[in-house]
Amino acid sequence: MTSSTTSIAEILRSLAPQLRGTNCWEIAARPPMRVPARVFTDEAGMRALLADLESKEWSALRQLVNVTMLPGIVRAALAMADVHPGYGFPIGGVGAFDPAVGVVTLAGVGFDINCGMRALRTPLHRADLAGKEQSLLEALYHDVPAGLGATGELALDPRALDQVLVGGAREMVDRGFGLPADLEYIEEGGVLAGADPAAVSETAKLRQRREVGTLGAGNHYAEVQVVEDVFDPAAAAAFGVERDQILVMVHTGSRALGHQTGNDYLPVLEAASARYGIAIPDRELVAAPIASPEGQRYLAAVRAGANCAFANRQVLAHLIRQALVRVLGLAPEQVETLYELCHNTVKLERHTVDGEERDLLVHRKGATRAFGPGREEVPLRYRATGQPVLVGGTMGTASYILHGTERGMAETFGSALHGAGRALSRNQAGKQYRSDQITRELRSRGILVRAHGRRSLAEEAPGAYKDVDRVVTIMAGAGIVAPVARVRPLICVKG
Prior knowledge:
Blueprint: H1 5-13, E1 18-21, E2 24-27, E3 37-40, H2 43-55, H3 60-67, E4 77-84, E5 91-97, E6 103-105, E7 116-125, H4 126-129, H5 133-143, H6 158-174, H7 202-208, E8 221-230, H8 233-239, E9 245-252, H9 255-275, E10 287-289, H10 293-328, E11 336-342, E12 345-353, E13 356-365, E14 367-369, E15 388-391, E16 399-404, H11 406-412, E17 415-417, H12 426-432, H13 435-444, E18 448-451, H14 456-459, H15 468-477, E19 481-494
């Protein structure tokens, strides 16, 4: 299953990244690489990636070079500024493939299918929240089911769950969760076509029956924020955002169903790699030809998993909206969906390559869609500006609202970073930080946090992540995204 191991080792020993443009480094293609590898980072970031290549077996740069060797990859394998090692395919990685001759790889999606973020805007400002912070924290903690293996009040029988896997967020709106207006501001309208519940195992479905409408654990959260800075007043006005405004962001994905689906398809794609003679440089990059029965079945399962995540966030947004209504006296329609986008996805999209429009299967692993102005996929309200891009930071620093650009469309298939990016593994962070210390430190800075998991706060400590201001500055400096606003956390509920 390994292709030209010696050549790969030689390539890795002799990497010589060259600046291709501002904050964009290129590693030239050498066989068995099919295309170059491009990394969006600054000089210090590239030094760190090269040092990891020398000192760590699990290296994001090694994984990115491996991705360049997959059949049918187009233009380049890409890494955003928040890049760090993942399963086979780096987190913060993007790869686009020709549907006729390319492959779909599970590692390019990961195990939390359609992990993503939704931002809700309110008409409130910071002063309106004064004295109500603790009450809102408690309401969100008790109303939003969270934690490892958490279950919610919504129990779906097999037929209902299959309907969710086909209908996504739309199905949940039809069932009374949220508002029809939400759907216009969700990527893909909250549902991916081509999902097939029959492609999802009964084990995955059984695990998911009571998990729709739950936050989960790890880096998933619900966070009340205040807009601290506005960088582009015109774009902010288009997004309905202004300084001192109260927003809420929720970050979660497809829960148990997505993880089980990944586990179910690992042996399927491993067998397909052997059956179709796909030379892969790492066994974690198992893949199938896009047009093959295995590839099509996996894509149908991924779409079902993506719809499960859309449905999950729709129910969570409904629960958060109810808490805001109860504690802050808002009307439900005053809590509006600003936007929702996806992270771990593989989707067929239309892009221009060398002056020619082509359909490409785009993998985004810990990276977001960031379409620029004029794309019909972007809601009409935002179309002249470009798609909102939500970048999650940490519970002790900041998050960002950006927008896509024309340069991003040309350089990254309309893709961008998804967060700050981890600097420490969860295990490392858990050893270095203590949850009670994190709680006290954040409270001293006016940030209230509460976690369902005993180790969650330590594993998700602000110091476990890269500097979100820096990674956003890198991507903006490269012209891939444009900053709209910086938001600061006030209240955070962790899984």
